[in-house]
Amino acid sequence: MRNxxxxxxxxxxxxxxxxxxxxxxxxxxxxxxxxxxxxxxxSFFVGGRTVFTDALTGxxxxxxxxxxxxxxITVDQMYVQYQIPETADSxxxxxxxxxxxxxSKSYETTPDGRMGWxxxxxxxxxxxxxxxxxxxARSGFDSTxxxxxxxxxxxxxxxxxxxxxxxxxxxxxxxxxxxxxxAFSNEQFPVEAFEEFGKQVIPDLNAQLPAVNPxxxxxxxxxxxxxxxxxxxxxxxxxxxxxAALINPTDIKGLITIETGCPALNSEQSSNLTSxxxxxxxxxxxxxxFGDHLEDVPSYPKxxxxxxxxxxxxxxxxxxxxxxxxxMHLPEYxxxxxxxxxxxxxxxxxxxxxxxxWIDEHVENKKASVGRN
Length: 373
What we know:
The protein is an alpha/beta fold. 32% of the residues lie in helices and 18% in strands. It has ten helices and ten strands.
């Protein structure tokens, strides 16, 4: 018999809770879509060498024991922390190297609490490796000379320079503004968090390192360990990716140089490149990035323009040798007011997108085309 009961509507309470459940699921889905899934993270050391020293401590009775101040130590090892997101398999990892008087903190949370490039690149499906330069932060260095001076084995005049950037120098040379405490009208660096930025500045012992900086060698070893990596250097380390490639280009897939001076063939720079070195570097896609206000700090009228010009010449020479080099002057790419610390600027994500676009077009697409051949 046919059921003649009319179809009844659910109670309004049921409809309300069904709608609430749907909204909750939608919100959960949105949250999940915005979540960051890390497949692997950790840290390790690259490189390093063993040396013998008879000046382990400043006296023969230290906390390491009594009457013993000689032995073998490991020096020049480079600390690297890393994170690999779940979806990173199709991309080369990016190695981000910090500049003078800083550490890999440069790429972590910004001074005003925003997402740094470490997290942003992870969310763009790139594995990120953050080394500390040899002689900085968690990486090693040879402390023998300091103990030798304390023990009287060497003259105090042998003490290597210990570099550190004061607040006044940082404000001007990093182009936060034309004079100390005054920001450019379109300044992108979060100057309201300048005090927090000052806490990132730490002693720089690079002056004691040999002519061939161990960090260069360690970066080339890291690229080999990762079986392919893009090296990104900033400021003091801006040309480190190229120096690593000159030592051993194996598995270095891209070179990104941010805000530094570039040695070039037959230039007036103190460290020139040979035609053979230009040819070697031309085999690897290269990006050079500079921010804004290069000539707008009266205390340093020629510093940044001179560095920009040297890198422009370097880019031209790489391209003339058949390479693939790009000069990315950010105002020409629609980004204005960027400081020297552009990875911490308020438009840092937009700058990162430009770099990621270059990686996709000049490095990743090259990888795909090679794979198809």
